[in-house]
Amino acid sequence: MKTLPLLAVLALSAPLLSIAADASTAATAPAAAKPAAPAKAARAATAQQAASAAPARQPPTSADIIATAPASAWRDVAPENLLLMTLPQGEVLIELAPRFAPRHVDNIRALARGGYYDGLAILRVQDNYVTQWGDPKADDEDTGLKGQGKPFPAGATTQVPAEFSIPLKGLPLTVLPDIDGWAPRTGHVDGFPVAAEPKANRAWLAHCYATVGAGRGNAVDSSTGAELYAVIGHAPRGLDLNITVVGRVLKGMEFLAALPRGGARMGFYDKPEQRVVIERVALAAALPPDQRPSLQVLRTDTPTWQELLEARRHRGGWFVHSPEHTEICSASAPMRIKPTDVKLERTPSAVQRQ
């Protein structure tokens, strides 16, 4: 298998200026009158030859920009917004989005603190769609199962209103100028992909790869956060504004995306033994400080972010064709483990408030 090289931005170089001697002037001018002319022309020709021989300087790649981003271009992930889901395959780290789904996030925090998710299971893995987890014995409208589910812990509620969108006005949305087929305006807030409709004054989290949503039944307000899913395939943007999105996976997507696919019934596992048991789901804030993952997400309101977007639009090197385009689902904000020896410095913000 051939290894693809790192992506690079297309090199843009200005054309070299041609320097031509004026034959008529050279012929009529006395040789002794302008002794410097031949030397000047020679120097210009030598400089032109050197410039032509020098390799074109390639703009920084996406990897270069991320590697050299200043400390102020990163933000810490708050422990109260970080879920740690432990599977037999490894750990999945999820950042919650209380700005967009505050009631659901509060309920998820209560469920995690009360140990509700511990011992539940991955119930569904549908190819190119979602991996879904929850209580196998929870009430199910399709099968008629009722009253056998695991009780909610103290502080969690069984009734949460739908949170499909929030007001756009005042939202610190860094607008993406590239055209989107699903919404008249798109961009990012806190690293999350956001779509918006200015005329209706509403904005919502988009269904991109690694988006985490709250499963619901037929009733609009039937989601509680007790059953969650992560997008593992091509962005199913048709789900936008139909399901409450609560966050996104920052780390560990390989453990969700590589699971065996379920059966013909929308990817749900046919047999209990096919399910993957969830060992634990913990809120980072509830753990001792030395057990909390220290993660950072690249800020999407800085010049560094704009530079990264440009690198993703204009691709060179290995690429024969540059798309000259990006969109919210392909422009995901990178994550890293927080370095232990950095000092934050202030960086001008590139945010556009709506």
Automatic annotation (TrEMBL):
It comes from the Bacteria. Its EC number is 5.2.1.8. PROSITE patterns: CSA_PPIASE_2. Residues 88-283 form the PPIase cyclophilin-type domain. Residues 1-20 form the signal peptide. PANTHER family: PEPTIDYL-PROLYL CIS-TRANS ISOMERASE CYP38, CHLOROPLASTIC (PTHR43246). This is peptidylprolyl isomerase. It comes from Roseateles amylovorans.
